[in-house]
Structure formats: C-alpha cells, structure tokens
Design goal:
Blueprint (H helix, E strand, L loop, with lengths): L30 E8 L10 E6 L5 E4 L26 H30 L8 E5 L5 H8 L3 E6 L2 H11 L2 E4 L5 H4 L5 E7 L8 H11 E12 L4 H6 L14 E2 L2 H10 L3 E7 L2 H12 L5 H4 L6 H25 L5 E7 L7
Parallel strand pairs: 4-5, 4-7, 5-6, 7-8
Antiparallel strand pairs: 1-2, 2-3, 3-9, 8-11, 10-11
Helix pairs in contact: 1-2, 8-10
Bound molecules: zinc ion.
Length: 346
C-alpha cells in the first residue's frame, strides 16, 4: 500500500486500489491518484472510475482495472462512425454525409499524408499496409488512394464483411494477439492502429505481435490520446478521453509510449500531432458530451441538434488546435511512429 501525497489538485492522499496492474507502458508499480469519480460520458457502463498516474512515466491507468472478459460489455452498439449511420431518416442521412465530407474524410486523408511524411515514403506503389482495428475501412480507402496494398482487421464479423464486400478490401476478423498466427513473419511494410492502444489490456504484447508481422525496416504508426497534452490539463476529468472510461484502460504519456516502443525493440521513435480536425473534435465532444455519436444516431431527442452545435465548436477551435499542436507542442492526440530496425540491426 502506498500513501500518495499532493498527486493532483483533484484528490488528497489515497491508497492504491488493489488489482491495479504494473504500468502498461513502463511496468512501474508506483501510482498517484490523478482523476477520481469519473463516469462514462455515454452513460453506457455503470459505476465510477478513477485514473492513476504512473510515477515512472506519467501514463494514466484505469482503476478498478477490468478483466479482459468484461471489456466487450462496455461498448454500445453505435461506437464508431460509419456512413450508413443515417439509416432511414433523411435528416440523419444528410448529417452523416455532411460529417463525412467535412470532418472524417479530410481527417483520414491528413492521417495518410502524415504517415507518408514520417516514414519518408514518396508515393511508392505496392507497399503493404495492415490496419489493426480498421472499423468500416474508410481510412484504409485513404491509404489505398496513395498506392498502398491494404489489409484490415477488426473484432466485429459484420464490419469485416462490410469492408470486404463494399470496399473490396482484404479484411480478417482478428484480435492483435492473432496476427502472428494469421500472417507470415515480415508480411507488411507498415502497420497502423488508430485509437487502439488505449483500449487494450496488454500494450507491450500488442507491440511484440505487430513487430513480428513487420518487415525489417517497416514502420508501426499508432494514433493515441496522450495525458501530457494541454487538453487533459484544461478539461481534467471532463476531457472526452478521460470520460471514455472504462473503455480507455489507459491514457499514455509520450514518455510512456517511447519506453514501451523501445522496450519492444522499435527504433526511430517519434511523435506527430494527429490531424487538427480530430484534435478539435476532442474539444467539441468534451464541451458537449450529449452530442456523442451514440446519442445522436441512437435516436435520442435533441442529440442531433447538439451534434450540429458540437460540429460548429470543432470548426471554431481549429485555429486554437494549431497553436496547441505546433506552437506550444502539447497536442492532445498524437501519432507515434516506431521502426523495426532494418536487417543487421537487432
Ligand atoms: Zn509507467
């Protein structure tokens, strides 16, 4: 039992809850309470949660820490964006198209461009890309337009069927741990995982499995919210990535990410801010939690109007995001890059 003092203004000294695992990023075991009394912004998972900050690397870890078999129950049926969300309603269909055109489409294109810049590839054709947790495959389409041969994995069979039949993209229903069994070693030039690491219980194991399917000299790019950005400080436990408890099992710091990448033998570890639109999206969602996708497209009265307002807040906050990301260099969402060393390396 540790006694923590002056860990955060939100809480006084507290005992570390039993069952908190070693830090998912640096394996440290000393924690200070960071946020207490956190509730699910979607009101889907009942209960109150807290986040504890690792003294070793600054990453935040969720407590009580759920068991792997409990995780599926935390996810509502509508969780990530897809074009078919509009369903039968003309208004919702229009809003889904508008959201895609203004927000998601440009975001995916920016993410593909950022990956190309960071890896130094210049429009080579036929590079093989695996996206882990590909969802509806809309981001994969952005990479395919830039010449990649793309493969996706997702946990949901119906999502995988959609990606295969509608986009003609190779896709497999799989968890990260299945990758070394599904693909021969050294199959891919690039593996991407957008907003995956914060959801999984074994980050180091995931990196090990991803490295196994990367070619020597290949890159892993992971987009993830970070706890050492300005947004976490400004919004505290109202920040969408904190009130995403209990689905966010952790929110790493950049230092934690660096350590876990290096421990799993990635080199050239670097960070870039995620797309400005997506970073701004976090502000809109933190200000107006009632505008969540789940609510707006789940049919809750008034949520559509709120989502429209949140959209306006997102666009208005883009200039501020550019300051946060490029002047102050404290982005709330980053893409972390690591390379499997070329042959001859370790
Ligand atoms: Zn740590």
């Amino acid at each position: 039992v540790t006694t923590d003092t002056a860990a955060s203004p939100a809480a006084g000294p507290r005992d570390r809850p039993g069952g908190l695992p070693p830090c998912l990023y640096c394996a440290g075991t000393d924690y200070d309470l960071l946020f207490d009394g956190v509730e699910d912004r979607l009101r889907h998972a009942p209960g109150r949660w807290s986040y504890w900050r690792c003294r070793g690397c600054g990453s935040a870890i969720l407590a009580p820490h759920p068991k792997a078999e409990d995780l599926a129950a935390f996810y509502p049926p509508v969780y990530s964006f897809r074009l078919s969300l509009g369903g039968e309603s003309r208004l919702r269909r229009l809003l889904a198209r508008l959201e895609y055109g203004i927000f998601f489409g440009p975001q995916y294109a920016a993410q593909a461009r950022a990956v190309l810049r960071a890896t130094g590839w210049r429009g080579e054709r036929g590079l093989r890309l695996l996206d882990v947790g590909c969802g509806q495959g809309l981001r994969l389409r952005a990479f395919r337009r830039r010449g990649f041969e793309v493969v996706g994995t997702d946990l949901q069979p119906e999502v995988v069927d959609h990606v295969k039949s509608q986009l003609g993209v190779e896709a497999v229903c799989a968890e990260v741990g299945d990758l070394p069994r599904l693909f021969p070693p050294a199959s891919f030039d690039l593996v991407t995982a957008f907003f995956l690491l914060e959801h999984i219980p074994d980050v180091a194991g995931a990196l090990r499995d991803i490295r196994a399917v990367l070619k020597p000299g290949g890159w892993f790019a992971a987009a993830v919210p970070v706890i050492d950005g300005l947004q976490a400080r400004v919004f505290g436990k109202r920040w969408i990535n904190v009130s995403e408890a209990p689905r966010h099992l952790s929110i790493p710091s950049r230092e934690g990410l660096r350590r876990v990448f290096e421990r799993q033998r990635f080199d050239s570890v670097s960070f870039r801010p995620d797309s400005a639109l997506n970073c701004a999206g976090m502000i809109g969602a933190s200000l107006l939690p009632g505008a969540a996708l789940t609510h707006a497209y789940g049919g809750r009265a008034g949520a559509m109007a709120l989502r429209f307002l949140a959209g306006a807040a997102v666009l208005l906050s883009v200039p501020w995001i550019l300051v946060e990301n490029y002047v102050l260099r404290r982005p709330g969402l980053v893409v972390v890059f690591g390379r499997r060393p070329p042959e001859g390396g370790r």
